[in-house]
Design goal:
The protein is an alpha+beta fold. The protein contains 15 helices and 17 strands. Strands 1, 2, 3, 6, 7, 8, 15 and 16 form an eight-stranded mixed beta sheet that branches. The longest helix has 27 residues, at about 5-30. Bound molecules: zinc ion. Zinc ion binds near residues 120, 187 and 214. Zinc ion binds near residues 120, 153, 154, 187 and 214.
Length: about 475
Amino acid sequence: MPLPVVILLCVLGFILLLFAVCAVRAVCLKKTLPDVKSAVSWTPEEEAKYASDLSALVKIPTVSKKQEEEYPDFLVFQEKLKELFPLFFAKAENHDIEGNLLRRIPGSDPKRGALLLMGHQDVVPAEGQTGWEKPPFSGEIADGCVWGRGAMDCKSTLCCELEAVESLLKEGYVFKEDLWFFAARNEENSGGGSDAAAAYLKERGVRLNVVLDEGGAVVDNMIPGLKYPASGIGVVEKGFVNLKFIARSAGGHASTPPKNSPIARLSAFVTEVEKKDVFKKKMATPIPEMFGFVAPYLPFVFRFMLGNLWLFRGLVTRVLAMVSPMAGALVKTTAAFTMSGGSAAPNVLPDEAWIICNMRPSVHQNADESIAAIKKIAEKYDIETEVLYSRDASAVTDCGGEAFRFLARCMAECFPDTVVTPYLMTGGTDSRRFEIVCDNVLRFTPTRLTPAQIAAMHAANENIGVKALAEGVKAYRYYIEKYNG
Ligand SMILES: [Zn+2]
C-alpha cells in the first residue's frame, strides 16, 4: 500500500479512536437525579409566619443611603428585626458599625472558627418604575408570593437566615462554632459598610471559616439543555470598571463641520470595540468545574463536548463567546457603553464629547490588563481614557475544598431535584470584602426563583414565593445544624 494512503488511514483511525473515546466518556457520564425526598419540610403555620415577617420588613422603605447620610428608616427596620427575632438579638453580642448590623453568637468550642451569614438591609429605589401592580412598599401577600421592593433582594435572605437561627435558639440549640451575622445598610451603593465590618473583624484577629452571602439561587434554565433546576453557588464574582472616553476638538459652528469630529471618532471607536475581539477568551476556573458538575445531566451532544474538555476546551470557549451575551460573559471581560454627552446645543460642535463604558473584568484578564486592551484602541482614534473606578475580580473559592463541598452536599439534600453547581457571578455582592478574613466566600440563597422573579430584581413587581421562603428558612437551618454537628 502506498505510504500516503497508510498515513491517511492512520489519521482517520486516530480520529475515529478519539471520537469513540469521547463518545464512551459521554455515555458513561450520564446521570439522573436520585428519586429521594428533600431533607426539609415545614408546616402551613410556619409558612404563614415567615411570609408575614418578610411582609413586615418589606413595608419599611430602607432605600440605600450613603454612609454619611442619616438613616431613620433603617432604625425602624432594625427595631422591627428585634421585634421579630427577639432571642437572636438578646443573645447576640452587638458589634454594629454605624447602622450596619454586625452581631456574634459565641460558639461553645473556641477552637473552631466562625461562620458568617450575611445579606443587606438596603434596597434600590422603586421611584420612576412604572408597572408596579402592587405598591412597592406594600409587602402584600397575594397569589402565593410576598410582593414589594426587597422581597427578594435581599430581605428574603435576611429573613430566612434569622428565622433559621431564631428557631434553633428557641429550642435551646447551642452553636459549637461562632456564628456571625452581618447586614450592611449601603450594599446597593457600595457605601462602605462591608469594608468597615471586614476591617473590624480583621483588627480583632477574627478568621471566618465560611462566609455565606446572597448570590445564586435555585433556578430553571440556568444552562441551555439542562432539564433540571440548578442550585448555583457563586464562588467568584467578576471585577468592575467604569471608564470615561473623551474626544476633543476645537469646537466651532455646526454649519462648517470638519472631518473626524469628536462624536465621529467616538462612534468609530465604539463600533470597533463591539466588532473586534478586544479581550482574551479563556475558560478559567470555575467554568470547567461548573461544566463538570452539570455535564452529566445534559443531553448527549452537550455531554460529548462538555464532558471532554481535555479535547474541546478551545472550541467550546470560542462557541461560548459567540453563542449569547450571557455565555460570552463567562469566558471574557465585557464592555458596555452606557452614557454619553457632547455639546450643549444642537448647532454647536463639541469641544469635548465623552462616553462612559462599564466593564466587567474576567478572572484571567484583570482590571488593569482589560483597561490597557481597550485603551490601545481608543488611542488609535485620538481618544483619552479616564479611569473612574476600577476593581479586579474577587478571589475564587476552591470548588474542591471542604467549605464548598459541604454546602453543595447540604443543598443537594435539601433540593434533591436540582443540580448543584459552582458558578461565576457576573454581578457583585458585598461578600468579596470579607476575603481579608476568609478563604471560603460562598454566594447562595437557598430559595427557588422563577425566571420572572429573577427579571424583577431591581425592577417592578419584585416578589418571592411563600413556599420558596419557607423552604429557604429550612435549608439554612439544615445547613447550620449540620455545620455545627
Ligand atoms: Zn442584593
